[in-house]
Specification:
The chain is mainly α. Helices cover about 65% and strands about 0% of the residues. The chain is globular, with a radius of gyration of 21 Å.
Length: about 350
C-alpha cells in the first residue's frame, strides 16, 4: 500500500523485544502503550503514532477494543502530528504570503501531501479496524467507544475538507464487493488511467492490488476510495452518525458528547458554511448540559465545563456582527477516566 507517513521509523528492534512468544497479549499491549507514553513525554509524536498503531493492530487482531487510556494515546498522538501540519498550512495560505506564489505553491503542496498521508493513515485504522470492533459496544459496558471513533473519523475528514477537498469523484470509481469483482474494477480503472497515473492518484500501485492477497483487497480498495471522497460530506456523515448515537446513550454533560457537538458545530460553520446549523447545535448542546450540570460526575467536571466554555465562546463569535472569517474553537485532547 502507499508509503506510511512514519515509514522512516525502524520498528524492528522493538518488535524483536516485545513480540516474543512467551509474552501474553496483555503484556505486549502494555509494553507498546508504555512506549507511546514515553514518546509523548519526549514530545516525539510521530514515534507515538507508530507505537499506538502497534496497539491497534495487536488488539483488533483478536477482536478486542482499545481501553480508554489506549484510545486517548491514539487520539493525542495523531492530533499533535496533524495539528502541526494544519497550523503550517493555515500560515502558508494566509493573505500576507500570497506574493510568494511560486515558492509557496510548492511548499503548500508538500504540506497538503503530508496532511493527506497522515489523515488517511489514521482513517484506515479507525474505519477498517476500530469502528467495526466497536460495532457491538452499545450492548456492552464501553458505550462511548463507538461515538469516540465516529467522532475521530469525522474530525479527520474535516481536516481533509478544509485543505484539500478538490479530489472528489462522483460516481465513485470503485465499489466494495467480492475480491474478484474489486480486482476487476481496479484493473478497469488502471487500464483507463495507466499504471503511473493510477498510483499517483490513489496512492497505491494497481499491481499491488491485482497480484496481492485476496484478503487484503477490500482494505486496499477502501484506501483508494479515501483519496477521492467528498471529504466535507464524509465528515458530515460521520459526525451525524456519532451524534445520533451520543444523544441516545451519553448524558448531555458527558465530555465525549460535548466534544462531538463542539467539533460538529465547527464543521457546520467552517466546512459546510451553515451558520444557522452551527449555532443551533452549539446552543442546544450547551443548554442541555447546563440543565444537567448538577448531575455532572466529578471525574468529568473539568473536561465538560471546559468544552461548554468553548461552545459558548463559539456562539458569541458566530453571532457577533463582525464574525466574517472567524474560525471556531475546537476541542483539544482531554484526559479520560478509565
Amino acid at each position: 500500500m502507499s508509503t506510511s507517513p512514519f515509514s522512516k521509523f525502524n520498528l524492528e528492534p522493538f518488535k524483536a523485544i516485545i513480540e516474543t512468544s512467551d509474552k501474553s497479549l496483555e503484556e505486549k499491549r502494555g509494553l507498546w502503550a508504555d512506549l507511546a507514553k514515553s514518546a509523548e513525554k519526549c514530545e516525539r509524536y510521530d514515534d507515538m503514532c507508530v507505537f499506538t498503531k502497534q496497539v491497534v493492530d495487536l488488539v483488533t487482531s483478536v477482536g478486542e477494543d482499545l481501553t480508554s487510556d489506549e484510545r486517548n494515546l491514539l487520539s493525542v498522538a495523531y492530533k499533535n502530528v496533524i495539528g502541526a501540519r494544519r497550523a503550517s498550512w493555515r500560515t502558508i495560505t494566509s493573505e500576507d504570503l500570497e506574493k510568494y506564489t511560486d515558492e509557496m505553491a510548492a511548499f503548500k503542496a508538500q504540506l497538503e501531501s503530508e496532511l493527506v498521508s497522515i489523515s488517511l493513515d489514521i482513517l484506515a485504522q479507525l474505519e477498517d479496524k476500530l469502528e467495526p470492533v466497536a460495532e457491538n459496544a452499545l450492548e456492552g459496558s464501553k458505550t462511548d467507544s463507538k461515538v469516540f471513533y465516529l467522532k475521530m473519523i469525522g474530525d479527520y475528514y474535516r481536516y481533509l475538507a478544509e485543505s484539500v477537498n478538490d479530489k472528489a469523484e462522483s460516481p465513485a470509481p470503485f465499489t466494495i464487493g467480492t475480491a474478484d469483482a474489486m480486482k476487476a474494477n481496479v484493473k478497469a480503472v488502471a487500464d483507463k488511467l495507466g499504471e503511473d497515473a493510477f498510483t499517483k492518484k490513489y496512492g497505491i500501485a494497481p499491481a499491488e492490488i491485482l497480484n496481492g492477497d485476496d484478503s487484503k483487497v477490500e482494505a486496499q480498495v477502501k484506501h483508494c476510495l479515501r483519496h477521492v471522497h467528498d471529504y466535507a460530506e464524509q465528515a458530515k456523515k460521520y459526525y451525524e452518525r456519532a451524534y445520533t448515537i451520543a444523544q441516545k446513550i451519553l448524558k448531555p454533560t458527558h465530555p465525549i458528547r460535548l466534544g462531538l457537538a463542539l467539533n460538529y458545530s465547527v464543521c457546520h460553520y467552517e466546512i459546510l458554511k451553515n451558520k444557522a446549523a452551527a449555532c443551533e447545535l452549539a446552543k442546544s448542546a450547551f443548554d442541555e448540559a447546563i440543565a444537567k450540570l448538577d448531575k455532572l460526575e466529578e471525574s468529568d467536571y473539568k473536561d465538560s465545563t471546559l468544552i461548554m466554555q468553548l461552545l459558548r465562546d463559539n456562539l458569541t463569535l458566530w453571532t457577533s456582527n463582525d464574525d466574517t472569517g472567524s474560525e471556531g474553537l475546537e476541542v483539544e485532547e482531554l484526559s479520560e477516566e478509565n
